[in-house]
Structures are given as C-alpha cells and as structure tokens.
Design a protein that fits this description.
It contains 8 helices and 14 strands. It has an 8-stranded mixed sheet with strand order 8-9-10-7-11-12-13-14. It has 2 domains: 4-114, NAD(P)-binding Rossmann-like Domain (Rossmann fold, 3-Layer(aba) Sandwich); 123-269 and 302-313, Dihydrodipicolinate Reductase, domain 2 (2-Layer Sandwich). It starts with a strand and ends with a helix. It is of the alpha/beta class. A hairpin with a 4-residue loop joins strand 9 and strand 10 (207-213).
Length: 316
C-alpha cells in the first residue's frame, strides 16, 4: 500500500486535531503543518514529528492530500492553491463564504481531477450511523444544537458556525428540495447572531425546525424525526437513541395502536477520525468524496438564505 503524504493548513483549535488524526493513521505520513503563526506551527510540528511551514509556498512536495482548517475567510484561497498543485482537499465547514467561491472550487477540483471534501463532521457521528438505514422518509424534523458561550469562532454567526451542521444533515436525510425558508435570530453576546431559529418547508411536504444557540446554559445536540409510522430521537452528544415504530397487531391499551419501543445507547465514536479516514480511503479508491463539494455548496446556500431571512427581519 502506497504511503500517502498529508499536510494540514491551519493548526489552530480544530486544525491541530486534523493533524493528530493524519499522524495516527497507518499508511499516511504527515509531512507538514502550515500556520501563519510560526510558534504555533513549530509547537505542533515538534509534538507530531513533522515539518513546520508558515506559508503554502513552503510546503514540501509532492503532497497527496491536505486538510484546510484556516479561518473561513481564507478557505477559498488556500483550497484553490492546493487544488492547483493537484492535491486532494478536505476543507472545513463552511466550505467558503459565497456561492461564487464554492462554484469556483468545485470547478477547479473537477478540472484537476482531485477530490474536494467538506468537513461536515456529524455525517460521521456513530449515533446517526447506527440508525441511518432506519430513516426513510422524514416528514417532520426538530433539531436543537445549543452550547454555552465560548470566545472561539465568534468571527462568524451561529448559522455558519453551528447551525450549518444540522442543515447538512437535514438536506442529506430529506430527498426533496427546500421550497420555503423562514428564520429569525439575534445577537446576544457578540456583534453577530448568537441564537437563531429556522423553519424549512420542502416540496415533498416535510417540515424542519432548526434551532442553534451559543448562549445556552447547557449543551444539546439532538435531532428528532417523525415518519409515517415511526419516530426517532437521536442524541448526537450522548449517543442515546429512541425508536418508536408502529406495528401490526393489537395493543395492550384498547383503542391505541401497537408500538414497538427501542432504546439504545450508542458509542458516538471519534467522528473526526472517521471523517479523515473516509477521506483517505476515498483518495485511495479514486473517489467519490463521502461529503463532496456539491454537498458543501448546498448546505452553504441554505445557510446564506437563512442569514438573509434573519437580516430581513432584524430591527432597523
């Protein structure tokens, strides 16, 4: 098996985790980390036994694949430069700032014949994976993603920072097109929207209510899905899963339908390692990326529409 040469661009809070995963994977050599802060780059490189760079121009070649975990404003430029070098790229979410940037990256990756994967981490959550085949045709969805305030990532609003995780999941689970978006949100502790709610209506009749907050007292990452004869509650944080499914036959309670109740406790696993491993496997297999550029663009488009709707309703 050929050893793949990997790099990580941006080793701040989240990028360092990417570097750790590549360093731990068999058949992968972490050949460099890149960060504009030379001290941070050197510290991470020293700990992981790799080379520190302060710019993409310093990257040793050849590189097979790379993660881009710089601030969102720099995603497009960093990913484009890597793609131009023929490097397969995993870019953190949100993939870029605008749909024009997304289209340019997707086109560049196709032209160079490299994979473009977007880091929508919850696709690899063990609790979701355990029941993914039970989700067939959701008609009502409620998602709550709440967290206490942290000063990290306050350069973007809650829609781009947090809600986009659930937008991607919902778009992946509902086989239909979004017909209407309603949304509201307000700043609380920063200059950006810190708590937001969106109502999505799909052409097939499905409705999704999505709430995200970074000013909550407690953490919550829970999704509830209702289908014609089934209800699923998935706690993406604790791994607790409840499935209530209607079945044929008589119920113990007169007049009530018969229902089978199943409660599971699932190991949510190391979602980032699963994501990075899936990216590496896709590169070895020649594709496709498990969460490709088109997926990232679709989630970005919906997030931007939600932001627009919030702005429309904001007080003057």
């Amino acid at each position: 098996m050929k050893t793949l040469r990997a790099a990580v661009v941006g080793v701040g809070y989240f990028g360092v985790f990417h570097a750790e995963k590549y360093a731990a994977l068999p058949g992968v050599e972490l050949v460099a980390v890149v960060d504009a802060d030379p001290q941070r780059a050197a510290a991470v490189a020293s700990r992981l036994g790799t080379r520190a760079c302060t710019s993409l121009a310093d990257l040793p070649g050849p590189i097979d694949l790379a993660s881009v975990a710089v601030p969102t404003a720099h995603h497009a430029a960093a990913a484009a430069a890597l793609i131009e070098r023929g490097v397969h790229v995993l870019v953190e979410k949100p993939m870029v700032r605008t749909l024009e940037e997304a289209d340019a990256l997707i086109a560049a990756a196709r032209a160079r014949g490299v994979l473009l994967q977007v880091g929508h981490l919850e696709r690899f959550n063990g609790a979701l994976a355990a029941v993914r085949d039970r989700i067939v045709a959701p008609m009502f969805i409620e998602s709550h993603r709440l967290a206490p305030f942290k000063p990290r990532s306050t350069d973007v609003d809650i829609v781009m920072d947090v809600m986009i995780h659930d937008l991607d999941l919902i778009l992946d689970l509902v086989p239909s097109v979004v017909r209407e978006v309603r949304a509201n949100g307000i700043p609380v502790l920063t200059d950006h929207v810190d708590i937001a709610h969106a109502r999505l209506e799909f052409e097939n009749g499905c409705v999704a209510n999505v709430t995200a907050s970074r000013v909550s007292i407690k953490s919550m990452r829970k999704t509830r899905l209702f289908e014609r004869d089934c209800y699923l509650s998935i706690d993406l944080q604790s791994g607790e899963v409840t499935i209530a499914a209607r079945r044929a036959g008589a119920s113990a309670i007169p007049g009530m339908p018969a229902i089978d109740l199943q409660e599971l406790r699932v190991d949510t696993g190391d979602a980032l390692m699963a994501e990075v491993r899936a990216f590496v496997d896709a590169v070895r297999a020649g594709g496709p990326a498990p969460v490709g550029g088109d997926d990232g663009r679709r989630a970005l488009a919906l997030a931007l529409e939600i932001r627009r709707r919030i702005a429309e309703g904001a007080p003057p």
